[in-house]
Amino acid sequence: MNIALAQVNPVIGDFDHNCRKIVESIEKANRAGADLVISPELAITGYPPKDLLLKSGFVDANIQAVRALAAYTKNGPAALVGFVARNEAPVGRLFRNALALLQNGQWMGESYKSLLPTYDVFDEHRYFEPAETANVVEIDIGGRRIPVGLTICEDLWNDEHTFRRRLYHRNPVQELADAGASVIINASASPFSVGKHAFREQLMGGHAAEQSIPLLFANQVGGNDELLFDGASCAFDANGNVVARAKAFEEDLLLVKMDDLREARIEPYPQTIESVWHGLVMGTRDYINKCGFNDVVIGLSGGIDSAVTAAIAVEALHGNAALTAKCSSPRVHGVAMPSRYSSDHSVRDAETLARNLGFDYRVVPLEKIHSAIESELTPHFENRPADITEENIQARIRGNIIMALSNKFGWLPLSTGNKSELSVGYCTLYGDMCGGLAVISDVPKTMVYELARDVNRRSKREVIPNSTLTKIPSAELRPDQHDQQSLPPYDVLDAVLHEYIEEEKCAADIVARGFDEAVVRDVIRKVDRNEYKRKQAATGLKVTSRAFGIGRRMPIAAKF
Amino acid sequence: MNIALAQVNPVIGDFDHNCRKIVESIEKANRAGADLVISPELAITGYPPKDLLLKSGFVDANIQAVRALAAYTKNGPAALVGFVARNEAPVGRLFRNALALLQNGQWMGESYKSLLPTYDVFDEHRYFEPAETANVVEIDIGGRRIPVGLTICEDLWNDEHTFRRRLYHRNPVQELADAGASVIINASASPFSVGKHAFREQLMGGHAAEQSIPLLFANQVGGNDELLFDGASCAFDANGNVVARAKAFEEDLLLVKMDDLREARIEPYPQTIESVWHGLVMGTRDYINKCGFNDVVIGLSGGIDSAVTAAIAVEALHGNAALTAKCSSPRVHGVAMPSRYSSDHSVRDAETLARNLGFDYRVVPLEKIHSAIESELTPHFENRPADITEENIQARIRGNIIMALSNKFGWLPLSTGNKSELSVGYCTLYGDMCGGLAVISDVPKTMVYELARDVNRRSKREVIPNSTLTKIPSAELRPDQHDQQSLPPYDVLDAVLHEYIEEEKCAADIVARGFDEAVVRDVIRKVDRNEYKRKQAATGLKVTSRAFGIGRRMPIAAKF
Hints:
2 copies of one chain form a homodimer.
Chain A: E1 2-7, H1 15-31, E2 36-38, H2 58-70, E3 78-86, E4 95-103, E5 106-112, E6 135-141, E7 144-152, H3 172-178, E8 183-188, H4 196-211, E9 215-219, E10 221-224, E11 227-230, E12 234-236, E13 242-245, E14 252-257, H5 272-290, E15 296-300, H6 304-318, H7 321-324, E16 329-336, H8 344-357, E17 359-363, H9 367-377, H10 388-409, E18 412-415, H11 419-424, E19 437-438, H12 445-459, H13 466-470, H14 490-502, H15 507-512, H16 517-529, H17 531-535, E20 539-540
Parallel strand pairs in A: 1-2, 2-3, 7-8, 8-9, 15-16, 15-18, 16-17, 18-19, 19-20
Antiparallel strand pairs in A: 1-14, 3-4, 4-5, 6-7, 9-12, 10-11, 12-13
Helix pairs in contact in A: 1-2, 5-6, 5-12, 6-12, 14-16
């Protein structure tokens, strides 16, 4: 039996596009001699469809799409297609997260997800009723009836190594093994985060080895709003070894010959920092394309954050070649907006970056606008001393300029803030936070530097200017400002933030790990009091295990 | 047996404040001769605590707080206190939504919620494990052991009249009746929406009548971010009639003598439009206070939206007396920011409003700033014709001015957009959308007018200027602009939006109700393409059955 894993990149709710992707996979798999094609979880709707599910007509249209797909299996391989089924039971949630088996032009049957993640970015209990039992389906392959164990994503994640260890009362893989499955199939939409890939393969390989059954994992690829799906679909033999792996961060079709697992292709998975880069490039490209934009606009400060954001945008819109050699990147527009406090090197570094990356570059000076707004506001300030107000005014003029260019030319504005500053509120709401997509808002500052060094290394040239990499970080919103006047050194800050945000540790626990108590309490206070800013932040691409966004739901008017 | 319903207004995560409220209720109930005091759902943490639950130390602190409360029941009534229990079972979610029974200074027992809402604004499966069965607790009152049936909020909402009709496999009230309960207690945090109160009492009265058992409902009151809790705790006799009701939209302690239900107080619940007003005033006041602000700042256009927002703010900060008679409202600051396109009447109407309501008023003209930004940007616009860009530039200058005053003086900025314009994107991101709280962003434009007329009627004077009420709505961002150049008449728009957003109807269904197809398709297209603006909107107070915010989760890069 030959099985093809169809690692496709769907657009949420775009049934035509998503079906076309699956049809193409079926046809390609047919030419490659596949007996069965497996699509990712909810491949028809794209994952996650969120409250589109509640819209009248949405689920009907998705079922109609599955029906139409069946025809394409008439003279080719069977297909397992992820879709939303109606729950026919009289009681319970309206829908099921389901797989349809299409074969010989017919809709042969369906199977449902048992374990419904409802934590972090996941809300599946909001929509779906779980399967009562996991399902072994007999699929007729060349006259043999093969008992296949069907699972969907979380069905494998009842692991004993994470917080999920205690979530679930059931083990679907065990149920399927007990019911005689000769292979376990898992259709997934498993989002990327740093380091997750290795854990995921370990977890899945563990299931295969424990049951002595081969396991196949078909994952979604692509960016859908904040979530990045890394693909890397793979196959495990009955000893739990990876015997096949599809590409990471791009579409792929992986053929696995169950009778000779040694024949399959094993694509490498990128190293940690490179995986973050590829994820951000993919997420940026997909957000731009799926929202229907052609160009992006970025405010350039000469600093590391805007430089890395611009380089990601250039690769997203013009391909990797635009990084490895100087060429033209006309779909990316950079704007330097020097103020009275900007140093010479900031404009110079922005210029160098634009030259290195070949993108459209322009300068809009702030001074005239800044003076005009000052002259109108000063009479209202009652002679109070200058403070954060004056700094924010400049940042918000910049926001207005970027948005004006965005409105006039239809360019998507990319904001450039990193996770460290968004955590402690070292950013201006409606100022540098303006934008449709916050490309690196889940990347800690120390990792932004790593990304910059790594892209220069891989590109074998100075993509990010060396002077940008080496200078002292500054917002340049007042004379002689630099970040470490307001914040602890970034290596300390990022370590404390990791403990507080990703690990959910309290102050005492963090101090116990050796950090200075005053620093820890100050950082935590700043994180807590800036929920209101993050409430209004642009969508940010998730790369860590806990990002700001839909996976972290904090009250604003609160105290703890 | 005398039971007191302690309708308190907690602050999320502020254990000291919340315990003090409960202690005060216990002491007051003791003086009134109560045997038992009932707090609302999760009264210790405030509802909803959201992901604060996941923070290390939060749940421990809440259990510690319950322990400390027990002492206050030593020489007084018993108390049922809403809190978060740890789930002691080895498998399942970490927590339980629970009630603790405190009596004679001891923690006597606890009881858990059975039905966990996971739809709209609710995420309870994210945190809680449901009770396996509903719990009858025997409470010793003056030597008699009274079998009391304990339920928490949603446990009553397995009704047959709404979408929930099919959600739940269990009926906790039936279970409790079967187990011999002589009274049903319901501790709730039931958020307000227009018209819900009547339905809620009908639902609860139905349970009481069906089981022929009296039912007592203790509800949270107050605003927590977007959610407004209206209180109106009440008691039903065994025929399902309301025999006692606490005040709506303010704290109260309601004593119910179970041996003579006729003795209780029945507060009136306000009429529909007045209930919206009170909800908005309460929500605005609570957001200001719970976030630690003293003053607010509002941009005034002379139009109806900013006028109603200002009047709500004045009542929130200075009480209803500030509406019924002219007096001084120094904690509210209004700013008129006329542009070259502003009509004379807009500044005049803003001035009149400020005089009527006695708040601080100032004028910051836009022209100088507007000219300066134009002169810098025009060279970049490549002689393209004026469009929405030029309109947004003005709105964003206004945003910068409001935020500067907010930053300089620590005033909370209130944004003034209504639901109709937020739905179709007739508003400027980072412009008029700037603000910490969007007071009327869930109020359709036609209801904004109703609110204005109603407040003038109730105040027996012209709070909202008549000229503001009667003039043609305009954003005044280009010459001779008015809203109906871009939008259908508001009565049509609001009706279509209601069908699409609150009723989740599709275009065909809405057209079938008699609306013009071109209008319907245009409105739907505008709603869909403006998800990105709403993603970055300020927290808005929820008054309809479906608001933008946490209860409506739409993908942005999507197509349907």
